[in-house]
Amino acid sequence: MRVDLNSDLGESFGAWTMGDDAALLSIITSANVACGFHAGDPMVMAATVAEAKAKGVAIGAHPGFNDLAGFGRRVIRGDSLSDIEAMTAYQIGALQALATRGGHRVGHVKTHGALANMAADDADLARAIARAVKAVDPSLILVAMAGTEQERAAEAVGLKCAHEVFADRAYTPTGRLVSRSQPGAVLHDPEMVAARALAMVQAGAVTSMDGQVIPVGIDTICVHGDSPGAIAMAAAVKAKLAAAGVTIAAFSSWI
Amino acid sequence: MRVDLNSDLGESFGAWTMGDDAALLSIITSANVACGFHAGDPMVMAATVAEAKAKGVAIGAHPGFNDLAGFGRRVIRGDSLSDIEAMTAYQIGALQALATRGGHRVGHVKTHGALANMAADDADLARAIARAVKAVDPSLILVAMAGTEQERAAEAVGLKCAHEVFADRAYTPTGRLVSRSQPGAVLHDPEMVAARALAMVQAGAVTSMDGQVIPVGIDTICVHGDSPGAIAMAAAVKAKLAAAGVTIAAFSSWI
Amino acid sequence: MRVDLNSDLGESFGAWTMGDDAALLSIITSANVACGFHAGDPMVMAATVAEAKAKGVAIGAHPGFNDLAGFGRRVIRGDSLSDIEAMTAYQIGALQALATRGGHRVGHVKTHGALANMAADDADLARAIARAVKAVDPSLILVAMAGTEQERAAEAVGLKCAHEVFADRAYTPTGRLVSRSQPGAVLHDPEMVAARALAMVQAGAVTSMDGQVIPVGIDTICVHGDSPGAIAMAAAVKAKLAAAGVTIAAFSSWI
Amino acid sequence: MRVDLNSDLGESFGAWTMGDDAALLSIITSANVACGFHAGDPMVMAATVAEAKAKGVAIGAHPGFNDLAGFGRRVIRGDSLSDIEAMTAYQIGALQALATRGGHRVGHVKTHGALANMAADDADLARAIARAVKAVDPSLILVAMAGTEQERAAEAVGLKCAHEVFADRAYTPTGRLVSRSQPGAVLHDPEMVAARALAMVQAGAVTSMDGQVIPVGIDTICVHGDSPGAIAMAAAVKAKLAAAGVTIAAFSSWI
Question: Testing the interface with B: which of C9, C13, C17 to mutate, by most B Cβ within 10 A?
Answer without folding.
Answer: C13
